Amino acid sequence: MTDVLSKEQRRFCMSRIRDKNTKPEIIVRRLVRQLGIGYRVHVKDLPGKPDLVFRKHKKIIFVHGCFWHMHACKYGRAVPKTNAEFWQTKRLSNKLRDSKNRKELKKLGWDVLVVWECQTRNPSLILKKIHRFFPILFSPETFR
Predict the structure, then answer these.
(1) Is 43 helix (H, G, I), strand (E, B) or coil?
(2) What are the domain boundaries of the chain?
(3) What is the distance between the alpha carbons of residues 51 and 87, in angstroms, rounded to a whole number?
(4) Selecting from 3.30.413.10, 3.20.20.70, 3.40.960.10, 2.40.30.110, what CATH number does the domain 20-132 have?
(5) Cβ atoms 25, 63 nearer than 8 A
(6) Which residue, of 11, 44, 75, 136, is most buried by count of CB atoms within 10 Å of its CB?
(7) What is the pLDDT averaged over residues 24-52?
(8) What tens digit of pLDDT does each residue of 66-121 get?
(9) Are 90 and 70 in contact (CB under 8 A)?
């Protein structure tokens, strides 16, 4: 099947896709900020340039796009109709790189949490994940 967009139109659309400061990432940042936890963004000296870094707590949060990082949800299982082999290779390499970065970070003593784009549609779910990720900061009632 051929692409419905011209090569120039497709190039323009793809150029608008961000790797930093995405909507899901901003949602997670707002939730963390509301909880009063300080963080740094896109720290270059750590493997994978993590989205949120909590140096004081030795914790990291990655916010991954479901399609780009092959999440198990319906968005991550989508298969492009054009240039499918290229995209499959690209997405698999992203997934392998993510795994390698997480292992490297764990060796360095960091705790890692991955928040998926599809999960950002339910802020209460993300808050629960964050509460579990920072158990020292919250009382047991917050986990209910």
Answers:
(1) coil
(2) 20-132
(3) 23
(4) 3.40.960.10
(5) yes
(6) 75
(7) 94
(8) 988 999 999 888 888 888 898 899 999 999 999 999 999 999 999 999 999 999 99
(9) no
Q: How far apart are CA 52 and CA 26, in angstroms?
A: 10
Taking 3-state DSSP, the helix, strand and coil percentages for the chain, each rounded to the nearest 5, stand at: 50, 10, 40
Task: Tokens 């030795």: give the residue.
Answer: 58
What φ, ψ does residue 90 adopt, rounded to 5°? -60, -50
How far apart CA 112 and CA 46 sit, in angstroms, is: 12
- Residue 135 class from Cβ within 10 Å (0-12 exposed, 13-18 middle, 19+ buried)? exposed
pTM for this model (two decimals): 0.83
Closest CA to 49 of 87, 104, 109, 107: 104
Q: How far apart, in Å, are the Cα atoms of 76 and each of 7, 23, 117?
A: 24, 17, 10
CA separation for the pair 80, 55 (Å, rounded): 38
Considering the chain, what is the average pLDDT of its residues? 87
